[in-house]
Amino acid sequence: MDVKPLLDRFAGHDRRALARLITLVESRSPEVPAIMREIYPRTGRATVVGITGPPGAGKSTLVDRVIAHLRAAGRKVGVVAIDPSSPFSGGAVLGDRVRMQQHFLDEGVFIRSLSTRGRHGGLARATREVVHLLDAFGHDVVLVETVGVGQTELDIMKLAQTTCVVLVPEAGDTIQVMKAGLLEIANVFVVNKADRDGARRLKNELEVMLQLRPAADWNVPVLLTEATADKGIEELWTRIAEHGVARRAARGDEEQGRERFEEWGEILRDEVAERIDRSLAQPDLLPLGERVRAGAVDPYTAALDVLGDAELLARMLGDRRAGGR
Amino acid sequence: MDVKPLLDRFAGHDRRALARLITLVESRSPEVPAIMREIYPRTGRATVVGITGPPGAGKSTLVDRVIAHLRAAGRKVGVVAIDPSSPFSGGAVLGDRVRMQQHFLDEGVFIRSLSTRGRHGGLARATREVVHLLDAFGHDVVLVETVGVGQTELDIMKLAQTTCVVLVPEAGDTIQVMKAGLLEIANVFVVNKADRDGARRLKNELEVMLQLRPAADWNVPVLLTEATADKGIEELWTRIAEHGVARRAARGDEEQGRERFEEWGEILRDEVAERIDRSLAQPDLLPLGERVRAGAVDPYTAALDVLGDAELLARMLGDRRAGGR
C-alpha cells in the first residue's frame, strides 16, 4: 500500500485523509510506523488535555461545552474518545456522541471515537498516534476522553499535558477516588453536576486529601461545574491553561528526552508484538500452532521453542508489508 | 538463576516457594517461561472465579465471605487481588486486605495482591500465570478480584470460568453498567449491600436488560447479597458452581484449542516485548537511544531503523539470562 498520496492530502488539510489515517492507526496497519515518521516533525504544537472519570460523571457533556468554549475563541479542536464499546453497549455510548454532533458540520472540530474492543493492549499507543495525527493536522487543542478507573485508561492520560478528573457528588467518597488511582493523575479536579447535594462536601474532601500530599509545583484545583447549564466552563479552561504554562516551565530537556526514549521503546515493543501476532497464521508456524491447539505441546514449551530459534524469529519479525512505502 | 530447587520446593507444597515464584512472575523475571513450562502439566484443576465491579461495591468483603464459605466445605482457596495501587492509595487498598487477614494463619488459603503500578501492560498475562501457580499448587478454587471498568481488568476476567459482577444500589443506573462493558462479561450479577434503597430496582433493571440479549445457554442470574451480614453467600456459590458445570458442558475441544493457541500468542508477544524492553539499555542500542533522547532522530525513525536490521533484532531477542536453567 502506497500511503504517499494519503499523506500529501493530509498535508493539504483534507479531513477525509485525516479520517483515513486514523483508521489505519486504529486497525494497526503495518504502514503505521512509516506514516508516523512522516507526520512526526509537524507534531508538538497542540495542547493535549485528558478528561477522565467514572461512567456517568457527565464527561461527554463537559467535553461538548469545552469544545464550544474553545471554538468561540477561534481555536481548532480535535477530540479522541476512548469507548469501552461492545456489541451490547454500542448504542448507549453512541447516545453520548450524538450530543457532540452539533459540532459535526464545524470544520474546526474533528471528533473520533477509538474502540477498545478486542484489543491485545496497544491502546495507549494507538491513542498517542491519533493525538499525533490531530496535532500534526493543525488542531490547537486535542481533548482525550476516557472512562477512568482502569489501568489502561490511566496510562492513556499520561499522554496529556493536563489531566482533568471529573467526578459527581454521587461518585461516593474520596477513598474510592484514591483506590481508583485518580488522585495521582489529576492536575485539575472537576466536581460536575454541582447543583446536586454533596457537591460542596466532595470538593472539601478532595481539597483535604490533596493537602495531605507532598508539596508540589502545582496546586491541584477542585472546580465546580454544571456542564448541562454551561456553568464553570470558562474557569475550567483558565485553570487548564495555567497548568499548561506551569507544566511547560517545569518540564526540562531531561524529561522531554525521557519521554522520547519511552515512546521509542513503546513503538518497538508494540511493533514487534504485532509482527509476532501477524506471523502466527503464517505457514512457518502452522504445524507448531496446530500442536498447541491439539494440546500436544503446552503453550509455554511452544513459545520457548520459537524464542530459541533465532532464524525463525528473524523470519517472523521481517517486514511483511506487500508493497513498502 | 537456577529455579530448579524452587520448583522442587513448590512441588513439595512449600508456601514460601509459591510466594517466591509469584514474585518472579510479578517482577517479570526472564525465568518465567521456563517456570511455567514446568508447572503447566499440573494446571487445569482449579475452578477459577472472577469477581469484579466498580470501586466501593464491597468486593473484598464478599471475597472474604466466599473464602469462609469454601473453607467450611474443606476446599483450598487461592486469591489474586489486582490492586490499582499507587504511592497515595496504598493505605486505602491495604485497609481492604486487612479484612482478609483473618485467613492469614489458615494454610488452606493463599492471598496475594498484584500491583498494577508502572506496568507496560502484560498484567493479564501475569495474572494468568499467578492463577496457574495457585492452581498447580493444589488450590481447589482460585478467586481473581479486580476493580472493574477498565479494559485491562475486563481482559483479566476472561481468565475466569465464571465471572461475577458486583454492584451496589448506589452504582447508578444500568446504562452505566452497559457503558463499562460489564454486561457481556457477567455470568452472575451480584447486587451487594442489598439492604439499601434501590437494590430491588437495580435487580429488576438488570434482569430486563439481560432479557433483551440474544438467547444463550446460560441465564445470567441477578443475586442479592449482604456480604457484611453474610447473607446470600451460599446461593452465590451454588450459582457459580452451576455456571461452572454449564460452561464445562458447553465448552468443546475447539474452544479449548483456541484458548491454548491464544495463550501461546500472548506469551510470545509479551516475551518478545519484554526482551526488547530489556535490550534498550544494552550497549548495542545505547548510541541510537542517546540520539532519540537528544531529539536528533524521532522515535518512529529510530524504531524503523531497529526493525529493519535483522541482525540487531536477533541480538536483542537472544536469550540474555545469565545462567540458564
Task: Give your account of this protein's structure.
The structure is a homodimer. Chain A is α/β, with parallel strands linked by helices and about 325 residues long. In chain A, about 50% of the residues lie in helices and about 10% in strands. A seven-stranded parallel beta sheet of chain A has the order 3-2-4-1-5-6-7, sandwiched between helices. In chain A, strand 6 (about 190), helix 10 and strand 7 (about 220-225) form a beta-alpha-beta unit. In chain A, helix 1 packs across helix 2. Chains A and B meet through helix 3, helix 7, helix 8, helix 12 and helix 13 of A and helix 3, helix 7, helix 8, helix 12 and helix 13 of B.
What is the CATH architecture descriptor of the largest domain in chain A?
3-Layer(aba) Sandwich
The CATH homologous superfamily of the largest domain in chain A is named P-loop containing nucleotide triphosphate hydrolases
Element-level helix/strand string of chain A: HHHEHEHEHEHEHHEHEHHHHH
The CATH C-level class name of the largest domain in chain A: Alpha Beta
| Count of distinct strands of chain A | 7
Proportion of residues in β-strands of chain A:
5-15%
Strand order of the largest sheet of chain A: 3-2-4-1-5-6-7
A few lines on this structure:
With 325 residues, chain A is α/β, with parallel strands linked by helices. Chain A is 52% helix and 12% strand. Chain A has a seven-stranded parallel beta sheet with strand order 3-2-4-1-5-6-7, sandwiched between helices.
